[in-house]
Design goal:
The chain is an alpha/beta fold. It has two domains: about 5-115, 3-Layer(aba) Sandwich (Rossmann fold), CATH 3.40.50; about 125-275 and about 310-325, Dihydrodipicolinate Reductase, domain 2 (2-Layer Sandwich), CATH 3.30.360.10. It has eleven helices and 15 strands. A hairpin with a 4-residue loop joins strand 9 and strand 10. Helix 1 (about 15-25) packs across helix 10 (about 280-290), helix 4 packs parallel to helix 5 (about 100-115) and helix 5 (about 100-115) runs antiparallel to helix 11 (about 300-320). The chain binds nicotinamide-adenine-dinucleotide (NAD). InterPro entries: Gfo/Idh/MocA-like_OxRdtase_C, Gfo/Idh/MocA-like_OxRdtase_N, Gfo/Idh/MocA_Oxidoreductases, NAD(P)-bd_dom_sf.
Length: about 325
């Protein structure tokens, strides 16, 4: 069987993770990479034996036929690569957030709809088995209706310094939890209240050190989300992630920093075995299935726009000190 031909645009930190994940997949091969940083391109080509490298995406599409691309350029540079890939007629796995403005997000969705190509968002929590397990328990109705949640995502300060003020920690980390919570609680959001803290990272880079976001749904359900890049370098966890969701019939709690997952109802408390899988190869597998079959991405353009609107409301709220009404 002919292998699915994948191109990766943007070969920085997460682009390299995608090269590794797709290279391991038996049904596909990474045939081309594209980055404007020539030395990074050469380094990635030499490390992973990629056949073709390009510093220009248009040239890549002209010379190298592809079935799908992964776009892993910085947040504010998602629109142009998506428009080019859509015109080339290839399916797209786009890193989160979909964009940094609703205008860019709408242009992205218009382009993929016009070209009739698939758009999948890199909302990684959909593919981390422990998080997917919680989502499935709610989908099956095992835990009743979600009414209350607490979620936390944190990285070391050096990650904030690496990104050098180019995005907020809500855009970088919070978007994953926002998407995950929306996938369980639904889109009927009422308000977002957010407050941020300005300490070392703010003083050095001009972006908040942390956010506390409170999302309230019309049903009365509430979720609190803490995101921060304020962890000390000594923290052995590259990424702290925790989520507790309380439903009308049970609750689930995952803490991948504390390495625990439990699901409880009135009659049992289950401690499923942890996989500690970062989910990227499962995400790659889902993208390949979407290319090869009529399967739709778990998180498509709509999920991307929804999460973006919540983030924009959180930014407005943290500046104004008031809850912001949201319509998804
Ligand atoms: N899903 C996740 O777990 C996860 C983790 C980290 C980053 N991300 C997201 O991935 C994206 C990339 O983040 P990163 O941390 O890897 O960034 P990075 O700065 O490490 O890498 C970005 C790369 O894109 C290249 N680039 C920029 N514009 C380009 C263009 N027009 N064409 C080709 N290459 C271009 C840069 O030269 C750089 O090599 C961001 O949207 C970020 O939010 C997702």
């Amino acid at each position: 069987m002919k292998k699915v031909r994948i191109g990766i645009i943007g070969t920085g930190l997460i682009g390299e993770v995608h090269i590794q994940a797709f290279n391991k997949h038996p049904l596909c091969e990474v045939v081309a990479i594209c980055d404007m940083n020539e030395s990074r391109l050469r380094e990635m080509q030499a490390t992973y034996g990629i056949p073709e490298v390009y510093s220009n995406q248009l040239e890549m599409h002209e010379k190298c036929p592809l079935d799908g691309v992964v776009i892993a350029t910085p947040d504010q540079y998602h629109r142009e690569p998506v428009l080019i890939a859509a015109r080339a007629g290839v399916d797209i796995l786009l890193e989160k957030p979909i964009a940094t403005t609703v205008e860019d997000a709408e242009a992205i969705i218009h382009a993929v709809n016009t070209a009739n190509v698939k758009l999948m968002l890199g909302m990684t929590l959909r593919y981390i088995p422990e998080y997917a397990h919680i989502q499935q328990q709610f989908q099956k109705g095992e835990l009743g209706l979600p009414i209350n949640a607490y979620s936390r995502r944190a990285v070391r300060k050096s990650e904030g310094y690496r990104l050098n003020g180019r995005c907020s920690v809500n855009e970088y980390l919070g978007v994953h939890d926002i998407d995950f919570l929306l996938s369980i609680f639904g889109r009927d959001v009422d308000t977002v209240y957010s407050t941020s803290g300005n300490f070392e990272i703010f003083d050095k880079l001009g972006v908040a050190d942390y956010y506390w976001n409170i999302i309230k749904w019309k049903s009365g359900a509430t979720a609190a989300l803490q995101v921060t890049w304020n962890e000390p370098e000594g923290n052995k966890n590259l990424l702290e992630m925790e989520c507790y969701v309380n439903g009308t019939k049970g609750s689930a709690h995952v803490n991948l920093g504390g390495q625990q997952l439990n699901v409880a109802t009135n009659t049992y408390c289950d401690y499923p075995e942890l996989t500690l899988d970062n989910g990227y190869h499962i995400e790659a597998d889902h993208f390949i299935k979407c290319i090869l079959t009529d399967e739709s991405p778990y998180a498509g353009g709509q999920a991307g726009v929804d999460a973006l609107k919540i983030m924009i409301a959180a930014e407005k709220s943290s500046k104004e000190g008031l809850p912001v009404q949201v319509k998804l």
